[in-house]
């Protein structure tokens, strides 16, 4: 990489997002340490890290060039930490970072949901934690192989510590934009993530699920309910997708043939992409439903409202492990009162 590097990067939670974004930075010459679970690190140590995207980029990092750790190395001084664990693991991960790293270390939460950076700050008050947002979908497509299946630019709350990283992320192919207030961007992303539980229950790849009007109607109903709650709360969500959220929900309700034409750009998802919540269900892991629909339910309650459809999705996802089965669209529509 040409140009000065602001320092080293530490990926906390070497999973799908951590390996992809940290890997793109490493492929561009940034010194990156990956902290992760032994099962993931073993795959990386055996196969190296392969990265691809829908624009045709391909990178491979040899095992010998990867810095892999099971714990945050005590005494490390990364200039930037990318917090890439799932929401349920945030507090523990932030505690480990705060224990091992110097006070004031900048940590960007590249997690979905609204409250992860606050949870990390609470668990690691010595850290400079900033919220971030990943707009695209990344899937693990092989041993140590990660593929970005949708387009977009990263976002984070503006902070003086992040500005020197902008050209570095740009050159690495993971451009990032800074925002004075990230909350509207996070809600804009959360609106899109409301499809995650629908996708997970459908058991279908993302593109196939979105081609099915019944599932799209479920997604649209969750968006509409959330927009109502946001309106009362005085939050205007930022546009994260190709169209504003209000228009998205009308688009989603179109008949399949028309949706296929009108939403061609939105359907620029390759056949491999699926929501990570689907993977969580398949692997019997805790999902992030509480950080998505659960957040809508809590915001509604704060304003004396209810969000029954989002509450229903929380209940369905939490009940799924006891009765693991695919939900046909009609059954899901019935469950949401559609
Ligand atoms: N995947 C996507 O396309 C995508 C897109 C946008 C945003 N996001 C968001 O990005 C975040 C990460 O998602 P992901 O899909 O990358 O999750 P993931 O694949 O599960 O990766 C997280 C990894 O971190 C590990 N981990 C958890 N706590 C740790 C700790 N204390 N020390 C070391 N490793 C730890 C996890 O291990 P265990 O499983 O053992 O806990 C897991 O291997 C989520 O908030 C997600 O919503 C994901």
Structure, described:
- The protein has 15 helices and twelve strands.
- It is an alpha/beta fold and 338 residues long.
- It has two domains: 9-180, Rossmann fold (3-Layer(aba) Sandwich); 185-335, N-(1-d-carboxylethyl)-l-norvaline Dehydrogenase, domain 2 (Orthogonal Bundle).
- The strands form two sheets. The protein has an eight-stranded mixed β-sheet with strand order 5-2-1-6-7-8-11-12, with helices on both faces. The chain has a four-stranded mixed β-sheet with strand order 4-3-10-9, covered by helices on one side.
- The N and C termini lie far apart (53 Å).
- The relative contact order is 0.12.
- The mean pLDDT is 95.
- The structure holds NADP nicotinamide-adenine-dinucleotide phosphate (NAP).
- Residues 13, 15-18, 35-37, 40, 84-87, 89, 92-93, 96, 110-112, 134, 137-138, 276, 288 line the site of NADP nicotinamide-adenine-dinucleotide phosphate.
Topology:
Blueprint: E1 9-12, H1 16-27, E2 32-35, H2 38-47, E3 49-53, E4 58-61, E5 67-69, E6 80-83, H3 90-100, E7 106-109, H4 116-123, E8 128-133, E9 138-142, E10 145-148, E11 154-157, H5 166-172, E12 176-179, H6 183-193, H7 195-202, H8 206-210, H9 213-233, H10 245-252, H11 256-262, H12 276-282, H13 293-302, H14 308-319, H15 329-335
Parallel strand pairs: 1-2, 1-6, 2-5, 3-10, 6-7, 7-8, 11-12
Antiparallel strand pairs: 3-4, 8-11, 9-10
Helix pairs in contact: 3-4, 7-9, 7-12, 9-10, 9-13, 9-15, 13-14
NADP nicotinamide-adenine-dinucleotide phosphate binds at residues 13, 15-18, 35-37, 40, 84-87, 89, 92-93, 96, 110-112, 134, 137-138, 276, 288.
């Amino acid at each position: 990489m040409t140009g000065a590097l602001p320092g080293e990067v530490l990926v906390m939670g070497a999973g799908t997002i951590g390996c992809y974004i940290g890997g793109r930075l490493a492929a561009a010459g940034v010194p990156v340490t990956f902290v992760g679970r032994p099962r993931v690190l073993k795959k990386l140590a055996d196969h190296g890290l392969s990265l691809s995207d829908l624009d045709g980029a391909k990178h491979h990092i040899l095992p010998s060039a990867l810095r892999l750790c099971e714990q945050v190395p005590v005494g490390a001084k990364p200039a930037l930490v990318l917090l890439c664990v799932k929401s349920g693991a945030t507090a523990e991960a932030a505690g480990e970072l705060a224990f091992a790293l110097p006070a004031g270390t900048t940590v960007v939460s590249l997690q979905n949901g609204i409250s992860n950076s606050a949870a990390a700050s609470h668990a690691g008050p010595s850290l400079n934690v900033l919220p971030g947002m990943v707009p695209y979908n990344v899937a693990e497509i092989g041993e140590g192989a990660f593929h970005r299946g949708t387009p977009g630019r990263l976002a984070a709350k503006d902070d003086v510590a992040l500005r020197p990283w902008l050209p570095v992320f740009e050159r690495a192919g993971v451009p990032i934009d800074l925002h004075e207030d990230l909350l509207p961007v996070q809600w804009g992303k959360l609106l899109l993530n409301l499809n995650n539980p629908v996708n997970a229950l459908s058991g279908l790849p993302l593109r196939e699920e979105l081609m099915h009007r019944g599932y799209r109607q479920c997604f649209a109903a969750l968006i509409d309910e959330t927009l109502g709650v946001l309106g009362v709360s005085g939050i205007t969500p930022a546009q994260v997708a190709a169209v504003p959220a209000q228009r998205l929900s009308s688009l989603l309700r179109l008949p399949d043939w028309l949706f296929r034409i009108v939403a061609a750009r939105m359907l620029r998802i390759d056949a491999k992409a699926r929501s990570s919540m689907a993977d969580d269900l398949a692997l019997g892991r805790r999902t992030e439903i509480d950080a998505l629909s659960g957040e809508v339910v809590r915001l509604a309650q704060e304003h004396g409202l209810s969000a029954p459809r989002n509450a229903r999705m929380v209940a369905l996802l939490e009940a799924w492990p006891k009765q693991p089965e695919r939900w046909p669209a009609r059954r899901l529509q019935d469950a949401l009162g559609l």
